[in-house]
């Protein structure tokens, strides 16, 4: 077995373990920390695929920004006590159904999808680096890229509007 | 990669690691000496000549203190907190280019831990992870003061990361690369140092670096009157030592990053002349290695200056209030850095390298105007 394969299997094992701990952990803070570990392992997978830019952005955006805000909110809410009233039989059933449907969809997609074979001799290893990513984003996919940025702008303006204090509002 | 190259590379990595620790250790001594100088007293002078053994004495004291874990604390997270803080602090010096390259037996090896083409993003990512050490430690202590201190530190760090990232974007636009080595290579002659082409970006970055390191004037997370000791209230022994030490390592790393991004890294004026003279008189290999050594010394001189600057500011300026800190970050630095990015873009479009000075000039004129137009303060005669 090659070194990269060993690293791949170890990383995958940690990823799956921490991802299942996210769901099973009783304490929400532990759950969030396990999710951060999961993102780390995914970053490791990106590095294994030589997609360095994606790896760095995954760390900065998900682990560094979004999960910090998650942790923040959970620490503020102080969810130490069990919230039993939200776990009725109906919600449990609904959760199982939704999860099951998602599983079916995923399995169907992955059964239908065919991974294109690659030739190690002609494969360009620089395809995941930031230069080639920039060329693709700003040449071939310019319109979707710009539309996504407009979407982000709209979301940002919406968040600011929601968070804005109107005259007569209470000062917390 | 053959064996010789591997050995030299490992030595470089170990030396960078050791130098980071030693500089952080002696920063604690230097801070007290600088404080002593500024307050007209001697500072530590008992342990060894000039008090040089003081850091060792401090470390010994730290190790022999009782290692206390509060009974209601989350034990594992309580231990992981300081470990995360020091781990993330030590990780970021891996990509900083400390010198040009070493030639040995026909090999040319760059003086750098690893050369990756997204170097600055790596530093940025590791810095953004530094928040976890503080948050996890503060939460796991199961103490309201620790939690509030941790939340303060984290919100301050997140807020200033945005302005910091936007200041870096202007640099990336000038250089066209994310690699720290290419950013240094882009500042070869003295007048193309980024501090001259990006003065506003430099000031924004420096301010954000102060906030990221939780240094005065932004040392709000530690506040005796409001929060006891901040996020490390419950910590003792070497766990506390790790938190304090991480701050000094962060200071060293941010000084190194500032010198690399804005002050030309290991470049200095008339560098090529010195390099040519050395290779001419001492031969291609020895001369080149000596020139690299001089470059490294110059970089360390720049780093030491910035560490001194951090201390200078700490013992000179009073701290901000928390709402002032947030207003400065969100309402002044972020709009200014966006403006800086836009103006830099126009400058690149019309080939004006020093376009960023426009904002600085306009700001200075506005500041002078507003202070001139402000009503004169009437001097109240002192009643006896």
C-alpha termini separation of chain A:
60 Å
Uncertain spans of chain B: none
What is the rounded Rg of chain A? 21 Å
Helix content of chain A: over 70%
Structural class of chain A, by secondary structure, is mainly alpha
Describe the structure.
The complex is a heterodimer of chains A (172) and B (384). With 172 residues, chain A is an all-alpha fold. Among the domains of chain A are: 1-79, NADH-ubiquinone/plastoquinone oxidoreductase chain 6, subunit NuoJ (Four Helix Bundle (Hemerythrin (Met), subunit A)); 129-167. Chain A has six helices and no strands. Chain A has helices at residues 3-24, 28-48, 52-77, 89-112, 130-140, 142-163. The mean pLDDT of chain A is 84. Chain B is mainly alpha-helical. Chain B has one domain. A two-stranded antiparallel sheet of chain B has the order 1-2. In chain B, helix 8 (199-212) runs antiparallel to helix 13. The longest helix of chain B has 36 residues, at 3-38. Chain B is globular and about 70 Å long. The model of chain B has no long low-confidence stretch (mean pLDDT 85). At the A-B interface, helix 2 and helix 3 of A face helix 4 and helix 5 of B.
What does this entry show, briefly?
Chain A has 172 residues and is mostly helical. Chain A has six helices and no strands.
Give the key terms:
heterodimer; A: 172 residues; mainly alpha; Four Helix Bundle (Hemerythrin (Met), subunit A); 6 helices; 0% strand; B: 384 residues; 14 helices; 68% helix; 2% strand
What layout of secondary structure does this protein have?
The complex is a heterodimer of chains A (172) and B (384).
Chain A: H1 3-24, H2 28-48, H3 52-77, H4 89-112, H5 130-140, H6 142-163
Chain B: H1 3-38, H2 54-64, H3 75-91, E1 101-104, E2 107-110, H4 119-140, H5 144-175, H6 180-185, H7 194-197, H8 199-212, H9 224-227, H10 237-262, H11 271-282, H12 284-314, H13 322-349, H14 357-373
Antiparallel strand pairs in B: 1-2
Helix pairs in contact in B: 1-10, 1-12, 2-10, 3-4, 3-10, 4-5, 5-8, 5-13, 8-10, 8-13, 10-12, 11-12
């Amino acid at each position: 077995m090659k070194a990269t394969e060993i690293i791949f299997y170890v990383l995958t094992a940690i990823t799956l373990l921490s991802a299942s701990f996210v769901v099973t952990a009783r304490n929400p803070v532990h759950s969030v920390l396990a999710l951060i570990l999961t993102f780390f392992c995914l970053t490791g997978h990106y590095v294994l695929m030589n997609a360095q830019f994606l790896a760095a952005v995954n760390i900065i955006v998900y682990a560094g920004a979004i999960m910090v805000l998650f942790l923040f909110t959970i620490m503020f809410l102080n969810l130490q006590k069990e919230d039993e009233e939200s776990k009725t039989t109906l919600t449990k059933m609904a959760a199982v159904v939704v999860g099951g449907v998602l599983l079916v969809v995923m399995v169907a997609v992955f059964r239908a999808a065919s991974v294109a074979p690659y030739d190690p001799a002609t494969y360009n290893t620089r395809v995941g680096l930031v230069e080639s990513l920039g060329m693709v984003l700003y040449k071939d996919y310019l319109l979707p890229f710009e539309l996504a940025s407009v979407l982000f702008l709209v979301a940002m303006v919406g968040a600011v509007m929601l968070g804005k204090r109107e005259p007569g509002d209470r000062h917390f | 990669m053959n064996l010789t190259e591997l050995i030299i590379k490992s030595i470089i990595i170990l030396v960078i690691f050791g130098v980071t620790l030693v500089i952080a250790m002696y920063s604690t001594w230097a801070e007290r000496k600088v404080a002593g100088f500024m307050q007209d007293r001697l500072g530590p002078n008992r342990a060894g000549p000039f008090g040089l053994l003081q850091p060792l004495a401090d470390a010994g004291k730290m190790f022999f203190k009782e290692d206390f874990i509060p009974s209601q604390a989350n034990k594992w997270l309580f231990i992981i907190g300081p470990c995360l803080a020091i781990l993330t602090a030590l990780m970021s010096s891996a990509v900083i280019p400390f010198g040009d390259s070493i030639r040995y037996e026909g090999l040319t090896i760059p003086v750098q831990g690893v050369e990756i083409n997204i170097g600055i993003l790596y530093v940025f990512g590791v810095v953004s992870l530094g928040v976890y050490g503080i948050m996890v430690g503060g939460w796991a202590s199961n103490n309201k003061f620790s939690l509030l201190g941790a939340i303060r530190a984290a919100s301050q760090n997140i807020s200033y990361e945005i302005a910091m990232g936007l200041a870096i974007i202007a640099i990336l636009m000038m250089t066209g690369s994310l690699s720290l080595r290419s950013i240094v290579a882009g500042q070869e002659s003295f007048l193309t140092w980024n501090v001259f082409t990006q003065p506003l970006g430099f000031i924004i970055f420096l301010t954000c670096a102060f906030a990221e390191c939780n240094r005065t004037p932004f040392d709000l997370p530690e506040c005796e009157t409001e929060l006891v000791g901040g996020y490390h209230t419950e910590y003792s022994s070497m766990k506390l030592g790790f938190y304090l030490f991480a701050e000094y390592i962060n200071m060293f790393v941010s000084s190194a990053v500032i010198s690399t991004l804005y002050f030309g890294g290991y470049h200095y004026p008339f560098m090529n002349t010195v390099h040519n003279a050395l290779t001419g008189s001492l031969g291609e290999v020895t001369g080149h290695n000596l020139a690299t050594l001089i470059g490294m010394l110059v970089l360390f001189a720049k780093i030491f200056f910035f560490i001194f600057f951090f201390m200078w500011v700490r013992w000179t300026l009073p701290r901000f209030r928390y709402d002032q800190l947030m207003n400065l970050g969100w309402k002044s630095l972020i709009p200014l850095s966006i403006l800086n990015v836009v103006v830099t873009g126009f400058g690149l479009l019309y080939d004006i390298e020093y376009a960023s000075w426009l904002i600085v000039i306009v700001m200075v004129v506005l500041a002078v105007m507003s202070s001139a137009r402000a009503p004169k303060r009437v001097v109240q005669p002192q009643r006896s």
